[in-house]
Amino acid sequence: MTSPASQSDEILQSARRSLQNVRMGPPIGMKSRALRRAHFYGKIARAAMAVGVLLVGAGIVGAIIDGIGFWGVMITGVIGAAAAYVLLRYPDMPMPTAESLRQTDLGTLAGKTEIWLEAQRPALPAPAIPIVQAIGLRLDALAPQLQTLEETNPASREVRKLVGEHLPELINGYKRIPETLRRQDNGGKTPEQQLVDGLTRIDREIETMTSQIARGELDKLATRERFLEIRYDGGGETA
């Protein structure tokens, strides 16, 4: 039987791994950091609750049978340590997908988009990384404005379309292109440059949206035509 001391060591190691996942990155924005921390501290709360319930249960049993004895204490300790270990290690934080971003509520859209972008960084070319970092800052600024919008507002649909559809389509279109073709000329630009240009446009669009929502220009935001040329910029059709 595993000793309580070794179980405690495993719990601490699991907590350190979980905290490392919270801090992995570097994050591109404060909203993604906040979501990761909330998930981590939620696991701590569940583990503490489970151990608390176990201790209360052991105390009740001990009161009924006039004590649980040495082995009862040992078994309670091992079970509590095992429960805490499992609850601190699992479940992993659900990673947003391009599909789930389309249904994400406005309150967490910015943070989940940042988490999704952080997962895409290894597949992106070096010139795109600073722009992705800038988009993270834009999303941090946009997040408070999204709190003022109703889901049914036309402006909300425009924000969701840009952040939840165009942005993932742009990056996924680039990723579908074989690596050997990403630096080859395609209509005057390489797919890599098309990606960088597309991300730059999206970065500017998010800045414009944030300003318009802050000024209350929702009608202007909802009706303004957009020429993002996502499919062309993403190079998806050259794959």
In short:
The chain is an all-alpha fold and 239 residues long. It has 10 helices and no strands.
Beta-strand residue percentage: under 5%
Overall 3D shape: elongated
Backbone structural class: mainly alpha
Quaternary status of these chains?
Answer: single chain
Q: How many structurally independent domains?
A: 2
Rg, rounded, reads 24 Å
Q: Could you tell me the mean pLDDT?
A: 82
Strand elements, count: 0
Uncertain segments of ≥5 residues (pLDDT<50)?
14-24, 227-239
Amino-to-carboxy terminus distance? 56 Å
The biggest sheet, with number of strands, parallel, antiparallel or mixed sense and barrel status, is: none
Helix content, binned percent? over 70%
Order of helices and strands: HHHHHHHHHH
Please, how many helices?
10
State the main characteristics.
239 residues, mainly alpha
Please characterize this protein's 3D structure:
With 239 residues, the protein is mainly α. The protein has two domains: 4-89, no CATH class; 98-238. Helix content is 72%, strand content 0%. It is built from ten helices and no strands. It has helices spanning 4-23, 30-65, 69-89, 98-103, 106-120, 129-146, 154-175, 191-214, 218-223, 230-234. Helix 1 (4-23) packs antiparallel against helix 2 (30-65), helix 1 runs parallel beside helix 3 (69-89) and helix 2 (30-65) crosses helix 5. Mean pLDDT is 82; it is low at 14-24 and 227-239.
